[in-house]
UniProtKB/TrEMBL annotation:
The Smr domain, residue ranges: 150-236
InterPro entries documented for this protein: PPR_rpt, Smr_dom, Smr_dom_sf, TPR-like_helical_dom_sf
PPR repeat start and end residues: 1-34, 35-69, 70-104
Official protein name in the record: Smr domain-containing protein
Repeat as UniProt keyword: yes
Record-linked Pfam families: PPR (PF01535)
High-level lineage: Eukaryota, Sar, Alveolata, Dinophyceae, Gonyaulacales
Organism field: Alexandrium monilatum
Listed transmembrane segments: none
PANTHER family, per database record: OS03G0856100 PROTEIN (PTHR47447), OS12G0638900 PROTEIN (PTHR47447:SF17)
Amino acid sequence: VSYNAAISACEKGAQWQRALALFFHDMPAAQVAPNIISCNAAMSACEKGDQWQLALALFGSMPRWSFMPDTTSCNTAISACGRGGQWQRALALFGFMPQLRAPPDEISYYCALDALFDRPAGQAVFLQAFERGAFPELFANSWGRNLFLLDLHSLSAGAAVMVASWWLLRVSEVYAASPAYFWGRRRLRIITGQGLSWRDHRASVVEAAIRDLLDATGTHWRTCRENPGSLLVSLSGLSGIGRRPKK
């Protein structure tokens, strides 16, 4: 347990070299066998240190120690590939999860969408997440109860972009078909927060991603003066939604 805790501490500090030293040197020297917890923690330290090759090496070596990757292992490997710009590998790992008997969870979709949000394959992953009921509270709030508000503050940047694209397209379709429904309303509100809810803790990462999306589609927006963690989007400028260029 003490080695697991020590490697986890290295993970939180992104000290990947120390995490690997504990895993490959200190544990064998003490005749302590690695387990899924210590391996996942070492992988996560490599991910946070932007060492995607090392994270994948650990992922692939798990059967050598007589255990198989679990959902957390897959999520970490997908995230490491995404951070390293290896979107094809991230997509392949995501697709391989059922064969590993590691069912995708909500974090799996976050990690995959972070790697794929600006790729055509990201749309398929997002639709799969939607069909399987991921983010249920988000869609209930932004579509069922309040069409004019979208709260993204708990999402990763990639998931936020995909959700916002979907939501804005739906709103633009309703606006074109039934403008009277929007009588007296000129703007939509998107809550991005300060970027602290997602595990990277990079300030304003979600807001920056949504700004890029709105700028790419020519959609007019401004920061809410009363709440800097919100963006106000002009209803009259939604015509560009759905024409975002694909890489």
